Amino acid sequence: xxxxxxxxxxxxxxxxxxxxxxxxxxxxxxxxxxxxxxxxxxxxxxxxxxxxxxxxxxxxxxxxxxxxxxxxxxxxxxxxxxxxxxxxxxxxxxxxxxxxxxxxxxxxxxxxxxxxxxxxxxxxxxxxxxxxxxxxxxxxxxxxxxxxxxxxxxxxxxxxxxxxxxxxxxxxxxxxxxxxxxxxxxxxxxxxxxxxxxxxxxxxxxxxxxxxxxxxxxxxxxxxxxxxxxxxxxxxxxx
Length: 239
Known about the structure:
Layout: E1 2-7, H1 10-32, E2 35-39, H2 44-54, E3 64-68, E4 70-72, H3 82-91, H4 111-126, E5 134-137, E6 161-164, E7 174-177, H5 179-182, E8 187-192, H6 198-205, E9 223-228
Parallel strand pairs: 1-9, 2-3, 2-5, 5-8, 8-9
Antiparallel strand pairs: 4-7, 6-7
Helix pairs in contact: 1-2, 2-3
């Protein structure tokens, strides 16, 4: 089941998604003692981090387990590193224990080995079913999400974490959670802004199963699309 919420701008978007994250964090910590979140990169950290930092008195960050929905196979302090960006904007500003933050190993002998190591890391924390409490995703104008690109063989991967060496968007070497694990998440949030995403969103919500974009293939039991007014100009807010 998916729902759509359209808000005015990035500031409101950050606040609305933050409030939902706070609610989920409290519910999952009460249920099983921790809150496992997989983050994607792009504009998502910049939209959400400030709102979370400003409200940290209402969030038990000490119980968070932080993973990445995808990552570029680059050093962690590289400008292209999703971990590097999230660290600067959020992770260094809130009291998440360092041992509960799980970046990739950029020193692995290959991107394939990096993906295997990361899968082992996910399984060691979440178990073999690898069910995340929340996955936070963005979407590109081409409909890609995480590092799952249109018509790419990565879409048929069935492992928990997969690698690619030929990403259509640089840098070419990446690791990513796969569709099966994304679709098992307890909750999935898409955070999407900009009028350049309108056409991809049209295709996703057309329910054309034979010509679906990667973001449209993320169809777990509870998927919420949070759109700013530019991305969501064809949608009315549904709660």
